[in-house]
Amino acid sequence: MAGASQGRRRAVHSLEAVIGEAIALLDEAGEGALTFRALASRLGGGVASIYWYVSSKDELLDRATDQVVVDHLERTEDLPRAADPLAGLRELAVALFDDIRLHPWMGKYMMRDAEAQPHVMIAYERLGEQVMRLDMSPRDTFHAVSAVLGFVIGTAIDLGQEPPAGADLAAGDRDSGLEAYAETWRALDPEKFPYIHLIIEEFVGHDDAVQFRAGLDLILEGLRRTSAGEPGADD
Amino acid sequence: MAGASQGRRRAVHSLEAVIGEAIALLDEAGEGALTFRALASRLGGGVASIYWYVSSKDELLDRATDQVVVDHLERTEDLPRAADPLAGLRELAVALFDDIRLHPWMGKYMMRDAEAQPHVMIAYERLGEQVMRLDMSPRDTFHAVSAVLGFVIGTAIDLGQEPPAGADLAAGDRDSGLEAYAETWRALDPEKFPYIHLIIEEFVGHDDAVQFRAGLDLILEGLRRTSAGEPGADD
DNA sequence: TTCGAGAATAGAACGCTGTTCGATAAGGTA
DNA sequence: TACCTTATCGAACAGCGTTCTATTCTCGAA
């Protein structure tokens, strides 16, 4: 054979491949698993090559986050916009929350730099346009969107924390983790911790998504009241 | 002189000193500044000595967070408990938010491991006891406390992000930072981004604390409605 | 066909990090 | 004196993000 196909092949990359493999790595093994060396070996190339496409790890994470948001926006592009602004807001917020939960690492980065993640702005805009339909003052509109966004992302971050290197062997491990906490709590003095004891059994086996929706509905209920009542009292 | 005071003195530490200096370091220079070497030089000792008191950086951060919570609990021990449960809940939530904002690094760690931070549980308990006075079902009580907590900590995390190594030279720089964002946003197409354009001027010069209180009041308003109305409808 | 410029790849090193190991000293007890 | 426990620390290790420099490939111009 006269072909020059012998010798070690050099890897061929692309920005899409770099971002894509980074997201895959993050999703599969968590934030701690994303290292330039691990990423390079996934790409089948050298470590330094990544810097041709991305100038730092910060930029890599910003781009990865933005890419996930792009996918989210495409997937929810034609969400059935409800007649009720609050129902529309709820749909968008739930969809955003669910997508962040699929990529627990990204919550932290969504709020960091709006310039580095241009598409995050579009997600904000969509939420904002629903709230605008409530005809409140610019200030109240801004506060309402901020509240919903803070709750969505904040809750997603809270729930998406990586466990502190504890036992995570078998599947269904989540239940036993919750049960372990509950065990500790049950040992607390019921006189001193009446609330904890009241909700222990609710906590065990609770569903994060249900918990999120319940909190969101509280905000939306408050928003319905506020928007129907006084038009933007100061403070 | 017959004294044996020559030669290099060995440093004398204590758990309180280690935690205290760690907190000081975090508060003064941010999360990235807390390294074992920096901490050791602050304590005037060697790096390895810190491991006598603390077995890992994770434990150090857990203990530091818990210590800040202890101080918070002491400071707010006798908050004037309002007659209205929601007013009491509001007081506690605002106090917690303000204290977290004084230590922006700690928000991330508060949710991580309840066992490693025993006093965080007490803060939860206090919030829960106010909500209990609303006489809702255990499930609704649990959801309400989770919502408030998620909003408090989530918002504190969002607002406490370290800027991505941008220009942070002079004081009053915050305004110019906001203004820089606003500049970018004003360049967006008003047709495509009506919400962004509506709130740009509200965003510039907005007060984080006011923004937080507005969101909190939405939740509380919703909570008032929900607790007065149907007694815990199933989703 | 040769040359050179640029795009793309990568090995090796640098400084920094959390962490571990082993040596060393001080205080109290038998 | 001998000895165990408590406490301290220098030195080293592996891993990290990042940079430097050299190399290969592609392709249009001469």
From TrEMBL, chains A, B:
Molecular functions (GO terms): DNA-binding transcription factor activity; transcription cis-regulatory region binding
The protein's name in its UniProt record: TetR family transcriptional regulator
Native organism: Brachybacterium endophyticum
Gene3D superfamilies cross-referenced by the UniProt entry: Homeodomain-like, Tetracycline Repressor, domain 2
Pfam families: TetR_C_1, TetR_N
DNA-binding region: 35-54
Origin organism lineage: Bacteria, Bacillati, Actinomycetota, Actinomycetes, Micrococcales
HTH tetR-type domain boundaries: 12-72
Assigned keywords, A-Z: DNA-binding, Transcription, Transcription regulation
GO biological process: negative regulation of DNA-templated transcription
PROSITE patterns: HTH_TETR_2
